[in-house]
Every structure is written in C-alpha cells, then in structure tokens.
Fold this sequence. Notes:
12 helices, mainly alpha, globular
Amino acid sequence: MRTYLLLLFCAALYGSNFVLGSLLLEAFPALHLSVYRLMVSSAFLFIYLVATRGLTKITFRDSVYLVPFVLIGMLLHQVSFFTGLRTTDATTASLILSLAPIFTALFARLFLKEPLTKRMAAGSIVALTGVFFVVGTGGIMGTAITEGVWIMFICMLALSGSMILMKKLTERMDAFVATVYTTVLGCISVYPVAAWSEPHIQVHPQFWWWVLLVGSALLIQGLCAVIWNAQIRKVGAAKASLFLNLQPFVAMILGYITLGTPISLTQVAGSVLIISGVVLATLQGQRTRKTQDDKLKLSPTEG
C-alpha cells in the first residue's frame, strides 16, 4: 500500500506538471524555463547521487544509448513540451501524452522485437479514437488541429522513443545513475538551443514565480524521479505505468481550477477512451509477462 500511495503521489505531480508549466510560461520564455528547471533538478539529482552512491564512469558502450537518449528524450522532449504548451491547453496536452504507453509498445515491437498482441492493437485503436474526440477536426470538435497539438504529438513520440532507449541504457547501467546523467546532459544540451532561439531575453519575474519554478523542478523532476525509480523496482514497470493514466484527470481538474480551462463533454469522452485503451493494452502486457514467467518456472519440473 505504501508503494501504491507513493506512485499515486508521483502520478498526481506529473499530471500537475502540465498546469504548472502553463502557469510558468506566463513569466518565463519557453526554452529558458526548460533550462532553469533542468538546472535545479540536475543539481538536486547530482548531489543526491554523490551523497548516496558516488559517481560512476561512463563507458563508450554506455554512450551508444546515452547520447541518443539525451537528444531525443531530453532535448527534443523538453523543447517540444514547453513550446507546445504555449499554444495548447494543459488538458489537451496531457491527453496527447497519455498515448505514450501505446506508442512505446509499438516502438518496442519494431525495435526490440517484443510481441504485439491483439489486445494491444485493440487498445491502440480505442486510445486513438479518444484522441480524435479531443483534437479531431470536423463534426466532433469543429476546430482545426493547431500547431501546438502537432508539437505535443512530437513530444509524445519523443517520450515514447526515450523509453525504448532508456530500457537499453538501463541494461548497461543503474536506472537512477542513468536518470542523473541524462538529466545533467539534457540541461547542457537544451541551454545552447535556448540561447540561440530566445536571445537577448531578460527575465525579471517576481519572487514567487521563482519559488514556483524551483519547487516544481525539485518535486516533479527531482524528488519524483527518485521515488518513481525506487518503486518500479518493487512492483515492475508495467504495473507502475498504470498510475500514469491518472495524469489527464489531474491536469483537467487543476486546469479548470487554476487556469479556468473549460471541460467539454468531448474531452471527458476522449479521456475515458484514451485511458481505457492504455489500460487495456498495458494490462495485457502485464498478463503476458506473467504467463511467460509462469512457463519459465514450470519448465524445469516439466523437463
């Protein structure tokens, strides 16, 4: 129960990240905001690593997956996330990113040769139908897909791709160590992009904006990373990922309370379909792995 409560705590904070990001964009330029938060979280994670485990050398074999992860999972993901939030409301952004488990499974089938079951395919169709309800054109929503929606799709694809790269990376090094190094290197990679695309920008927000920035970075990108990685080792990635399906609900509620973002019936219907599809696909993956484990346990006695 303690583990599940900690995972619920992290999922709630991850969901609030969409709303907090939208709020902080009122005071900070998008890419500078990403850099500032990465600086805070990098410092926190690096100090925590040195104090608890010490530094670990990075080999050339590690960099084969470490460098692509930094470029895709940190640079592309961070840039597209905060850029997309400038023109996309927090609820829609969270619903798009909730497709990440589905596309992660598809990428795993392509690049890791993991099986794609019928239920996974059915879950993908249900989830994509939900996205059409939320951001589709024509008779359902009556609005065109904005540039911000496309950018959030890129963000979601970058997140899915980074999960595949992280799986390969954690086969070579400890998951928490990989998290620290990728966060630090991500901060280094995002900084020149921010300086080039948003030059000569002077940031003079009020004190409380800085408090919100530092607090959100420490809680969401720092503390949650430590807690999440620790709990995944206890319950497994498949079961832990189910808690991420709560993100759209958290973003929808907080967006309505803090930003006044209206909640439409199509968004509610779309969120139900998206989360149902993701749960359907994820549960199947969990059952498949459990069946395979049972077969492995029985095989010695059968032989």
